[in-house]
Amino acid sequence: MNDHLYFLKSRLSEDMFERLSQIGNEKLYEFLADMIKLCNPTSVFISTGSTADLEYVRKRVIEVGEEIPLKTQGHTAHFDSPADQARARDDTFILSDPMPFINTKNREEGLREIKELLRNSMEGREMLVGFYSLGPKRSPFEILALQITDSYYVMHNENIMYRQAYDEFVRLANRANFLKFVHSIAKYDIKKRRIFIDLEDETVYSVNTTYGGNSMGLKKLALRLTIRRAMNEGWLSEHMFVIGVNGPNGRVTYFTGAYPSMSGKTSTAMLERLVGDDLAFLKIINGEVRAVNPEIGVFGIIEGINSVDDPIIYKVLSSPGEIIFSNVLIKPDGTVYWNGKDEPEPEKGYNYTGEWWKGKRDEKGNLIPPSHPNARFTAPLTLFPNLDKNYDDPSGVVVRGIIFGGRDSDTSVPVLESFNWPHGVVTIAASLESERTAAVIGQVGVREFNPMANLDFLSVPLNVYISKYLEFGKRLQNPPKIFGVNYFLKDERGNYLNSKEDKRVWLKWMERRVYNEVEAVKTPVGYIPTYEILKELFKQVLNKEYSKDDYVKQFSIRVDKYLEKIERIRKIYKEIKGTPDEFFIVLDEQEKRLRDSKERHGSVISPLVYYG
């Protein structure tokens, strides 16, 4: 028995030590011993993922008051501090050399700071140790992960969201190559909230926070680590949904999709066959792109969910099942209310600010809504009736199309197919912008640059990320088609040109285009649908008449707006050293096509001009 095991034997109960000793991984023993010495918990719970262990966490989370049981069976509610209600961008750092667009900190300095904050942070509390897999177990996608926390709420979330993998750690023993996550509530001093990501050691440290996006290691914190692994190994770890779209004659076609916040990602993910709503691993296997959802649960924004626009999610949230509601309002009858729920706003209740009543104001005099705008729910995928049967397939699903969407009021057409992989990567994915909404601090309508909807989570320089994306497609004979969508185009009076339901039609058109079953119109910016096929699809999918006038308004090429966008994008990438030459070549070609078209047809060009 080595020194680390001796130490662990002295700090763990006989039962817990027996569980740990089954694993036989020296790296794990060393890391866990170091963390116990640093955090100094009163006891240590080693979870095997068994039914009894999952039940222990569900029981303890209520006993210690981290969650409150609700009236509906299986439902609980959790509250974070009013100052800890979202991802803490300003407190999150990658421990590495400086990179554009990324918060970085010197590694040695960061490790010193975080270890000081973690010192004795678990005194008087139990340390929980969980073993998980991102991606289906025993598959080419499996990435093992170790989570250490002193929060039963964090472990409860992760038990819902991720595959239990104690058995894989045991099977692989010293061969297990795992990510490591350490979280402590500590003194819950928000001024000392820190989330540090150590790329070199593939470890994330999080302290003085409980909000899920800051404390659940395997969520967006793991994304930084898996992006780096993916870049080094030649695959893609993306902020994307994975869905199956029903085609003709029982055909199912799988797409992934990346959209910045408030751009229609969740509503699109829920339209047909759900595989995953948020994250995707994409790998080339036997010459085709396959994808899995690294998660088996949903940690979703709940604001605005109602029975008309979101019938599937609403039904899940209204039915019995293991669901955690975070930062919503608990009504006096033990049920929950969130902003936008289709029932009258309650007069009183209990929320993240304590006792709440209609008209309650904060210290600045602002009205406090019943539920926080970033309130969340955590639910297992198995509660969703539209869950695709292949959601946990170890070989993944074959990806035929990748969709990128943003909130854009005056430039992009509602749906567009790129000419080829490099054209899609450069002019759609890497050029993605999205306008701010009232839900984001700052001026409404300002465009935010967000390539692949992944800028917040990058852990490699942007030029490297773009280069690897371009290379990924070149390794394929038939790469997935790349599409751009925009559900938010407006006319000159500020009215939306599409209804919320129209995305169903765009999805069906993309599914047909994957197999080149319908014709498309070639424009300077890519292929758009013909009027004839849209007229047919609107009738078939929505039972609506679709006018040629609507088609012209929606699919006219706004040349000057596209040229302005090219200038913005070129300026950004010119300042990023190492951006591949191919990027600017593709961008220049698009600009030339637009300028030539403008010379012949003017600044706003009807799609009918490009017919024939």
Report on this structure.
The chain has 612 residues and is α+β, with helices and mostly antiparallel strands. The protein has three domains: 217 residues, Phosphoenolpyruvate Carboxykinase, domain 1 (3-Layer(aba) Sandwich), CATH 3.40.449.10; 279 residues, Phosphoenolpyruvate Carboxykinase, domain 3 (Alpha-Beta Complex), CATH 3.90.228; 85 residues, Phosphoenolpyruvate Carboxykinase, domain 2 (Beta Complex). It contains 18 helices and 33 strands. The strands form eight sheets. Strands 1, 4, 5, 6, 7, 8, 9, 10 and 11 form a nine-stranded mixed sheet that branches. Strand 13 and strand 14 form a beta hairpin. Helix 1 crosses helix 3, helix 12 runs antiparallel to helix 13 and helix 14 crosses helix 15. The radius of gyration is 25 Å and the shape is globular. About 1% of the residues have low confidence.
- Under the CATH scheme, which architecture of the largest domain would be assigned? Alpha-Beta Complex
Task: Sum up the overall morphology in one term.
Answer: globular
- Domain module count: 3
What percentage of the residues does DSSP assign to strands (E)? Answer: 15-25%
Q: Roughly how many Å apart are the termini? A: 78 Å
Number of strands: 33
State mean pLDDT (0 to 100 scale): 96
Helical element count?
18
* Helical fraction: 25-40%
CATH topology of the largest domain: Phosphoenolpyruvate Carboxykinase, domain 3
Unreliable residue stretches: 438-442
CATH class of the largest domain: Alpha Beta
Oligomeric composition of the shown chains: single chain
Helix/strand structural class: alpha+beta
> Major sheet, described briefly?
9 strands, mixed
Could you tell me the radius of gyration in angstroms? 25 Å
